[in-house]
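Put briefly, the fold is written as integer tokens. The lines below illustrate.
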Amino acid sequence: MGRRRVGVLLGGLSAGPALSPATGEACAEALERLGHDVVRIPVDGDLDRTLRQARLDVAFLTPHGRPGVGGCVQGLLELLRIPYTGSGVLASALATDRLKAKEIFRLHNIPTPPYYALGAAEATRCATLHGSFGFPAVVKPRREGAGGVSIVHDAPELPVAVREALRHDDEVLVERCILGREISVGLLDGRVLGAIEVAPAGERRDRRSKDALDRSDGHLPPRLSPTRCRCVLALAEKANRVLGCAGAARVDLLVTEGDNEYVLGVNPLPGLAPTSLLPRIAAGAGYDYDRLIEAILAGARLHAGTGWETAAPAPPASRAKVLVPARRRAIGGGRHSG
């Protein structure tokens, strides 16, 4: 791959954006070692103007939390016709929305822990609504990936956890807490790279402990039988595929002592610091860090089939691109891409 002008997007408006600078800087340094012209671009302020003025060939996404993970930045890049790494708008939004992801998992017979959703108006009677759902339970904001996740062990703890989750989103997901081995599977362009066991049975599964586990030793490969491991990898590949995720992704699962498997979720923009889970999984598959970053960059593309084409070159001062409609398709002709 030749030298390219790469914008490394980092930061994010979330409860826990501190991960992104470490990931973003590590990716930027790797891209510089690979000979690319790198521009570091924080995901804040007037991002539209910043991207137009940066004159990028491609965007390398590293933000954590909204809007970088949930499709907003991806949508802007689609409009500006700047190819980018990772999943497209729809897949990013679905994977980040825990409720929608679970609904899609159920539609495709992918096992996921039982759950229900609560809105802000129902917070005051959450204990009544919880009914016989049981404890312990995991309380999560519906869309915020980096904060507000709690484990509750009894009814008095539930309203506190719900109020905390509602600080990060306007809807809450309550999920049954299932004890088991937590396994993370790494994927690149839909291909499974391998898996790592990141938590022993019964460990707390809130986001804060997961961040700590992200830097722990873990078990690579997981402490599973070969047959069980193959099942876990196949399930992760299916979960990633039904959401339509692309590029680098991480699927988090649980494997119980009875060898039942549950998909917790798909991270469409996983941490890429050298000690993060995906690079460690990739290393086990033969990718050193720089090679992994180059492979992710090679997969950068536009995802939306908008039917728009880039017209004549824009004035050099702004590098703005003028878009004109392509030849109109006949109504009902061809297949619609997701």
